[in-house]
């Protein structure tokens, strides 16, 4: 069943290629959505796809790329909105 997650990722997650990491992992898992840096230093991720793929994706987000240090991933589950065609990085 398709679902949607909205994640706020905190820690050392900006200036360490975290958005690129999140986008590459999402695309390789056939997820759609977007990722962006927020002014408060967090990274915000919206992803839609199959529930099992989203669960695995959350585990990847908790790890992050090599230079990142993820303190917390706050996840909100919901129903997909269907507005995404691919996975994009917002600036």
UniProtKB/TrEMBL annotation:
Substrates-to-products reaction catalysed: an acyl phosphate + H2O = a carboxylate + phosphate + H(+)
Entry-linked InterPro entries: Acylphosphatase, Acylphosphatase-like_dom, Acylphosphatase-like_dom_sf
Active site (catalytic residues): 19, 37
Molecular function GO labels: acylphosphatase activity
One of the Pfam families matching this protein, by short name: Acylphosphatase
Entry keyword Hydrolase: yes
Keywords: Hydrolase
Domain Acylphosphatase-like: 4-91
EC number: 3.6.1.7
The keyword Disulfide bond is annotated on this UniProt entry: no
Family of the protein in this entry: Belongs to the acylphosphatase family.
Record PANTHER family: ACYLPHOSPHATASE (PTHR47268)
Name of the protein in its database record: acylphosphatase
Origin species: Candidatus Lloydbacteria bacterium RIFCSPLOWO2_01_FULL_50_20
Lineage, top ranks: Bacteria, Candidatus Lloydiibacteriota
